[in-house]
Amino acid sequence: MWDQLGLFSGPDNPITVSEVTGQIRVLLIGQPSLQDLWIEGEVSNFSRASSGHCYFTLKDAGAQISGVIWRSQASRLRYLPQAGDQVIAHGKIGLYEASGRYQFYVDRLRLAGRGSLAVAFERLKARLAVEGLFAEERKRPLPAFPQRIGVVTSPIAAALRDVLNVLRRRYPQAEVLFAPTQVQGDAAPLQIVAALCALNAQPDVDLILLVRGGGSLEDLWAFNDERVARAVAASRLPIISGVGHETDFSLSDFAADLRAPTPSAAAELATPDRVELRTTITQQEERLQRAADTALSTRRGEIAQLARALHHLSPVIRLGNARQRIDGLAQRAATALAHRLDGERQRVTALSGRLAALNPEAVLRRGYAIVRERETGKLLTSVSAATVGLGLNIQLRDGEIGAVVE
């Protein structure tokens, strides 16, 4: 017989289980109202397979339905549910023919009631914090004088104009390297990650400004994406996150090296103020000049003191003193020598007198003579030594005469 499914069957011609389930699947797919459903219920038995697909049960007080989130859909969801969450899910009804079970295939999901995004934010924040993604010891100091600054934001955003105006006013010598990206919508997270990676690949960028103007939590949600938070934390370059207004906080703020309350504040935190720099340099120059003058004055005093000490220890003075001592010793020596010479002269004079008195010539002048043997030249001092015929030389005052003893 034909049944409502359009199958003809009977005791003699039964249909297969696969045919029945196939027809049921066609029936479910053919119902437009079952292909575009929003269902509210409580999540239980949530699990994520190694394949990345998520499986759970969605239930209320009277019934339950199996739910599936394929990996491709799960990667685009802002958050994944936990057991006990009250959620509103969008998807379609289908049939898992292998078990003959109909299932709800989910492509969108949010927490039921107000504050669902805030709950998702807090959950992801807590999980990343446990991993140490927001730890203070991971924060790096910013360069004091950046020469090249990367900016990640939308090319049509007011945040870009604000940042450029602040940089131009405060520190115009810095070069800006702009990495454009969407900052809102489903495509924004991957574009932000790509822009951060592109700037990190540049060898001469000093730091990155990740900025966006204010908006609702939904508008800022791209900066709460787990992929963006991880890319910020993994950045080779220091990052200042300036997303939203002062009261707005995003996961990129916590993962960045420094959080700024606004995009303009991010630009101010990234750079020194040239006016303040000029004032500081002038003050430093004055302090340096005073320190130099004080140091020079001190050194001059020390040099003068050393010069005086050196003067007292100078070899010139010692040489002068030595010369003076030498002159005194020379004078004393000359005086002593003169006295000694006078004494010697007196002695010589006395000896000369005595010698003169003993000079034979003087005796001869008084009439005496000196007799010598002619042959030997010996003095003849005794008559007994004079033999007859002995030749003699007799020396008188004015010459000699020869004589012979008779």
Question: How are the SSEs ordered, and which strands pair?
Answer:
Elements: H1 17-29, E1 37-48, E2 54-59, E3 64-69, H2 71-74, E4 86-96, E5 101-111, H3 116-130, E6 148-153, H4 158-170, E7 175-180, H5 188-200, E8 207-212, H6 226-233, E9 239-243, H7 251-255, E10 258-259, H8 263-270, H9 274-313, H10 315-358, H11 360-365, E11 370-373, E12 391-396, E13 399-404
Parallel strand pairs: 3-5, 6-7, 6-8, 8-9, 9-10
Antiparallel strand pairs: 1-2, 1-4, 2-3, 4-5, 11-12, 12-13
Strand content: 15-25%
List the secondary-structure elements in sequence, H or E: HEEEHEEHEHEHEHEHEHHHHEEE
Shape: rod-shaped
Separation, N- and C-terminal Cα atoms: 218 Å
Structural class: alpha/beta
CATH superfamily of the largest domain: Hypothetical protein af1403, domain 2
- In the CATH scheme, the class of the largest domain would be Alpha Beta
Nutshell version of this structure?
The chain has 406 residues and is of the alpha/beta class.
Q: What does this protein look like?
A:
Helices cover 42% and strands 21% of the residues. It is an alpha/beta fold. It has a five-stranded mixed β-barrel. It has a five-stranded parallel beta sheet with strand order 7-6-8-9-10. Helix 4 (158-170) runs parallel beside helix 8 and helix 5 (188-200) packs parallel to helix 6. It is rod-shaped. The termini are far apart.
Index terms:
about 400 residues; alpha/beta; OB fold (Dihydrolipoamide Acetyltransferase, E2P); Rossmann fold; five-stranded mixed β-barrel; 11 helices
